[in-house]
Structures are given as C-alpha cells and as structure tokens.
Amino acid sequence: NLSQRAYDYKKFANQVVEMRPSSSGALSVQMLFGFVKSIHSWLLMDNTNVSVIHCQDGGGTSVCALACYLLWSKDFSSLNQAFHYVEQCKGVKCKEVLSATQLRNARYFEKVVQSGPSCVSRGSMVLRRVLMHTVPKFSPNLSCKPYIQVLCSGEAVYTGAEMGSRKVRECLQEQGDLCFPIEREVKGEFVIQVCHCINKTQAVCMFRICLDTAFIQEGVKRIDTGDAEISKKHDHRFDEDWYVDLIFKSTTADDANGIKDQKAAAAVAAAAASKRMAEWGGGEGASKPGTRRGG
Fold first, then answer.
1. Residue 59: is it exposed, middle or buried by C-beta count within 10 angstroms (0-12/13-18/19+)?
2. What is the pLDDT of residue 100?
3. Do the beta carbons of residue 135 and residue 241 sit within 8 Å?
4. pLDDT reported for residue 4
5. In whole numbers, what is the pLDDT of the chain averaged over residues?
6. Are residues 121 and 215 in contact, defined by beta-carbon separation less than 8 angstroms?
7. Which residues contact 121 (CB under 8 A, 6 or more apart)?
8. What local confidence, expressed as pLDDT, does residue 202 receive?
9. Per residue in 153-195, pLDDT tens?
10. For residue range 123-142, what is the model confidence (pLDDT) as tens digits?
11. Rounded (10°) angle between helices 100-115 and 79-90
12. Three-class SS string for 49-69?
C-alpha cells in the first residue's frame, strides 16, 4: 500500500506492507530501497507468491516504485528502460504522472544501485542563499509577495518572515532576480517552500523543492520549472526562463577550516611564547620579569 490512507488489511490476511509517501506523493530513497527489498523477500518465499502494488490513484508513486524494483532486480540495466516498460504495461506516460520529486528520487536510487553506497554523502549542508530568477506573476499587477520556509524532517528550520507582516514585501517584475539569505544547516531530506501571501491569513504555494543532502554537492544547484513542484494551474505564472539557484556550503569544509584555524592559532601562540622566552633570557628555567629564582 503506497497510498496515504489505510484500510482493512484483514481482508488480505494482514499480509499488507504500508509505505506512506510524502505529501507530494514521493517515496524517499530510503523507502524505495525498503520497498524493493520487501517485494524481493516476499517473492523468494514461495514461487506462487504474487505482489500487488497500488498507490492513491494509480499514478506516479506506483510507477516510480515499480521502475525502481525492475532496475534493482536487474530486469533492466537503466531506469529509462524500466520506465519505458512500465509505460507499456500501464498505458501511461511517465512524464505526465511523475512529479519532479518522484523522478529525482528515482534518479538518486539509480545512482546508488549503479555506483554503490560510496556515492552517498553522510554529512549535512548549509543552505546559504536561495536566488530566484524572474518574479512569478501571482498578483493582479504581475507581482508576488514571497514567503519562504525551509523544512527539515517536517519541522521549519527557517521562516523568512511572519506571513502577512510588513516584512513580506511585494516583488515586482522589474526587480529581476530575488535573493533570500538563509544560512541554515540541513541534513537528509528537506523541503524549500515558497508561498505567495494573499493577505494576513491566506497564502498559496508558488512552488516546492524537495531535496536530500545525501546527493548534494557544495556549490550551486540550479532548479528550473521541470525540477520544482509547481501546480499545473500555476504553470502560466512562471516565465520560461524562470529558475532558482540554491547555494550550498559543506559543513565538513567548515570543520576543516576550523581545524586549520585552530592549528594556525596554536602556531602563532607558540611563536609568541618562544619570543617571550627569548626576551626573558631563553632556555629552561629562565625567570620571568618581576620574579625571583628560588634557592
């Protein structure tokens, strides 16, 4: 059961595994590996066993999970081949049913299957800035009032301003690029959500970006309309050349710089101590100014 709701599993002898996707309908990379291993172990138990997979509406979640299983079980050598096979069997077009996050997580899954776990980063990242190129048209005057949040493990680690406050300013088309300073550490799966404030109590989501630090490198990551979660009814509000640049900095780099700074400080302190010792006469047992030797 890959849907977001449960039902009476007694009708199936309670032999149902429940894996609930996120609100965007995407299974995390970790859940995708749990899914394929669960299917594999069930089918190995008995040659007559059959596995039935379903999601909420027969759309992207089950398509993504099935393609990942076919890749993991080595039925196909690439994710594209697996997607093509699922398309033929289900009579759907993957690009029409898969969300940006579902496709991204499937690509992450493929990378781990083909390259091994060494391609996965265990560290965290600092999201320094979010740069948005061109202003989405959500107001009658073709402007927007952006309200940004960064959520990690379901909890907000950054909120740009209180919704409806004066700090949420109207951004006009002629402003061009918008910059949101973030400077927050994120680890694992996280979501960047940008809403348009209609008034003090109402807002509409302009776009969402769901990422995983396990597959992010330090530097700039560009997200265009095909990589962001944008409602189809809002597609026309974004220019064709719209994109978002996410600026990341590795926390391990900070740790390394910190160690270098500590070593440099220790070297400076040692040099200063040596200089003082030389001024005091040098050598062990040299007395400090204003003190007397014992004896």
1. middle
2. 92
3. no
4. 84
5. 83
6. yes
7. 213, 214, 215, 216, 217
8. 87
9. 888 999 887 655 566 788 988 888 999 999 999 999 999 999 9
10. 899 999 999 999 999 998 89
11. 130
12. CCCCCCCCCCCHHHHHHHHHH
* Cα→Cα distances 253→21, 183, 190, 256, Å: 33, 15, 20, 5
Q: What are the tokens at 9?
A: 């599993």
Are 157 and 187 contacting, i.e. CB atoms less than 8 angstroms apart? no
Rounded (5°) CA angle 213-64-246: 30
* Residues whose CB is less than 8 angstroms from the CB of residue 82 and which lie 6 or more positions away in sequence, other chains included: 66, 67, 68, 70, 71, 75, 76
pTM: 0.77
Give 137-180 as a DSSP string: --STTS-B-EEEEEEETTEEEEESS-TTSTTS--B-GGG-EEEE
206, 138 Cβ separation under 8 angstroms:
yes
Task: State pLDDT tens for residues 242-269.
Answer: 999 999 999 875 454 444 555 555 555 5
CB 58 within 8 A of CB 64: no
Q: Exposed, middle or buried, 111 (CB in 10 Å: 0-12/13-18/19+)?
A: middle
Residue 247, beta-bridge partner list: 129, 220
List the structure tokens of 49.
Answer: 């066993």
Distance (Å, rounded) from C-alpha 179 to C-alpha 157? 18
- What CA–CA distance (Å, rounded) separates 92 from 115? 29
Lookup result for tokens 């949420």: 168
Q: How far apart are alpha carbons 36 and 55 in whole angstroms?
A: 15
Cβ-contact 204, 195 below 8 angstroms: yes
**Tokens describing residue 40:** 């594999």
